[in-house]
Specification:
Layout (H helix, E strand, L loop, with lengths): L2 E7 L13 E6 L5 H15 L2 E7 L1 E5 L4 E5 L20 E7 L13 H13 L2 E5 L9 E4 L2 E4 L10 E5 L5 E6 L4 E2 L5 E2 L8
Length: 198
């Protein structure tokens, strides 16, 4: 029976969700080679009869030197130079959901590279890909008792702003819009679900 997989790049602050019977969660970081990440995902898919949804939790970044968009994921990043690795997931993963700011952006660079990168991920993996065009908020709670503090797992909740679903052929098959984040007078990001725009 297919399983879901959550992969958290720890440069995104917060605690990784806990694995359950239906979901395997693990972490990567700036020292994890992208090949090692794909080795592990392929192994999970082979052992579990496939992966229903692969969730990637990370930061979306702009690579200024190349004027392009990438995902801050593993040592090498997910970028145009590494996207070919997703071909290893063909016939192993049904859907990929990218929890990252600006993953499918069209305006951060001159070329709208976030949108194109997501298309390539869908094509290479031959899987549906869901990603947001704007900043995404997430929550985590810290509970302290005396000097002992425990942090809750990252919780994304609903999407913010425009969200795009790419089909297996890389074409957009769905788009939907949620309230966008907003910035207060000090420049802090505000979650529209918790604090509607004034």
């Amino acid at each position: 029976m297919p399983v879901n997989v959550v992969v958290h790049d720890t440069r995104l602050e917060g605690r990784t969700p806990i694995s359950t019977a239906s979901t395997i969660a693990f972490e990567v970081d700036e020292n994890t080679h992208i090949g090692d990440f794909f080795d592990r995902v392929v192994r999970i898919a082979d052992e579990r009869g496939g992966i229903g949804v692969l969730y990637l939790m990370c930061h979306g970044v702009r690579v200024i030197a190349e004027d392009t968009t990438a995902l801050l994921f593993c040592r090498e990043l997910i970028a145009f130079t590494t996207v070919h690795h997703f071909a290893r997931l063909r016939d192993k993963v049904d859907r990929i959901v990218i929890f990252a700011c600006h993953a499918a952006e069209t305006s951060m660079t001159r070329h709208g590279d976030g949108d194109e990168l997501c298309r390539h991920i869908a094509l290479e993996a031959h899987a549906e890909v869901t990603a947001a065009r704007e900043t995404q908020t997430y929550s985590r709670m810290e509970r302290c008792r005396f000097l002992d503090c425990e942090e809750s797992a990252i919780e994304y909740g609903d999407w913010e702003g425009p969200v795009v679903v790419y089909g297996r052929d890389g074409n957009i098959i769905a788009e939907f819009e949620n309230p966008s984040v907003w910035y207060d007078s000090s420049g802090a990001v505000r979650d529209p679900r918790l604090e509607p725009r004034p």
